[in-house]
Backbone:
């Protein structure tokens, strides 16, 4: 209690350490080059942008209250104007309001290159908005930057240009980066407001623990992790998939593909080192292994795989149905075990306390290859894409299970 983790730089602070930014953006005398913000952007001090003053609270709250409440406003020591813009003392980014109420939940979407993370996030947001409409909830972008970020880096390409996304560029660069910019939403459910912070990752960055240390700190601090597993990379499965579907469902050469278990291993290591969890203790952070690209593999699955073929029943219900979830988990796990991915299920069992499995498709069909281009014949037709997300919300105490 009384602490929060910055959704931008992942550094933990106590409530009383919060700082404020002057609202007098253009005329404040305290305007100067914002060096902590430049460090967050990984640009040199010299090129730091000039922004209005950032300052700590003048009089901290009395000790017993200090850990209970986050200060809500302060006056600028330079121009005297009152401000309620709370910023992180480490990176100077504006903090979502829910930070002070401990109602921020962060979800890390991870997996190898080409596993489908970017398409998953692009389509998931649309699907969650649909669910919210049926339930009378609201999912709203945290600010205009998020609207722009989502539209430009996730939405337009597949809903309007009808072309699949390129693989995501590494976040290990200076300046702004798509993957270092989280997607932040406010979720209004009944009378409660939550802030959801969704992190995409570049599979390329997850190939090295040294890079992960620099750009993927959020993984170890996340409220939940979604690990996307690419079925077209599970050898026994890929041998049965039609050539055309296989080609359309992948952007990298077969020889470039790495074993997915190794990435899962690095994720576990990252969580262990961040939270000082020993090798012999199971990790408690909820994690779901979500098999992507179901459309490309559904044909090859044997009889008995039934729940996975049905649309998700949580859409109308607005809660996680225990029985349905159990079937989804069992069927996915049995597919992994039967198609030679038992290394994954064994690893999960050994390393995680709170884990589950599911299967989804973001696009609903393989992109088509025309000449040297990949195109989408239809707008995304997702299948069970909400499942991993809703399970994490349940584990975070936001959604009910019945
Ligand atoms: N058949 C099928 N293919 C998909 C689906 N989603 C993604 N793909 C294919 O997988 C490729 C990679 O998807 P991305 O979402 O870019 O993968 P990523 O995990 O973000 O990859 P990195 O950014 O490199 O980490 C796409 O270009 C598509 O060819 C899907 O739902 N069905
Ligand atoms: Mg990507
Ligand atoms: Zn920060
Ligand atoms: Zn000022």
Residues:
């Amino acid at each position: 209690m009384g602490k929060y983790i910055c959704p931008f730089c992942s550094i933990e602070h106590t409530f009383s350490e919060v700082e404020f930014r002057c609202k007098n953006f253009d005329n404040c005398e305290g305007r100067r080059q914002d060096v902590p913000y430049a460090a967050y952007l990984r640009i040199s001090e010299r090129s730091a942008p000039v922004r209005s003053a950032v300052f700590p609270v003048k009089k901290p709250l009395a000790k017993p209250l200090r850990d209970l409440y986050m200060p809500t406003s302060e006056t600028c020591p330079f121009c005297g104007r009152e401000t309620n813009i709370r910023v992180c003392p480490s990176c100077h980014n504006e903090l979502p309001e829910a930070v002070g109420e401990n109602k921020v939940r962060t979800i890390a979407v991870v997996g190898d290159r080409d596993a489908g993370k970017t398409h998953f996030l692009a389509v998931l947001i649309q699907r969650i908005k649909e669910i919210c409409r049926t339930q009378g909830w609201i999912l709203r972008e945290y600010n205009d930057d998020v609207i722009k970020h989502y539209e430009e880096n996730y939405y337009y390409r597949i809903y309007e240009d009808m072309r699949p996304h390129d693989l995501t560029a590494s976040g290990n660069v200076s300046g702004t980066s798509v993957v270092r910019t989280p997607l932040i939403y406010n979720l209004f459910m009944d009378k409660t407001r939550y802030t959801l912070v969704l992190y995409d990752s570049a599979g390329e960055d997850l190939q090295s623990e040294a890079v992960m240390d620099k750009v993927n700190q959020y993984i170890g601090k996340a409220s939940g992790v979604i690990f996307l597993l690419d079925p077209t990379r599970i050898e026994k499965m890929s041998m049965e998939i039609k050539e055309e579907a296989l080609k359309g469902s992948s952007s990298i050469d077969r020889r470039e593909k790495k074993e997915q278990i190794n990435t899962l291993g690095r994720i576990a290591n990252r969580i262990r080192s961040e939270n000082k969890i020993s090798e012999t203790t199971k990790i408690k952070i909820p994690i779901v292994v979500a098999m992507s690209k179901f459309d490309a593999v559904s044909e090859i699955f044997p009889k008995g795989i039934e729940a996975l073929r049905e649309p998700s029943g949580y859409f109308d219900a607005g809660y996680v149905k225990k029985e349905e979830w159990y079937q989804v988990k069992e069927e996915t796990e049995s597919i992994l075990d039967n198609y030679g991915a038992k290394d994954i299920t064994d690893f999960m069992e050994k390393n995680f306390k709170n884990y589950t499995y599911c299967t989804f498709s973001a696009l609903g069909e393989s992109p088509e290859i025309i000449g040297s281009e990949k195109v989408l014949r239809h707008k995304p037709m997702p299948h069970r894409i909400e499942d991993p997300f809703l399970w994490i919300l349940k584990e975070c105490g936001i959604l009910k299970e019945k």
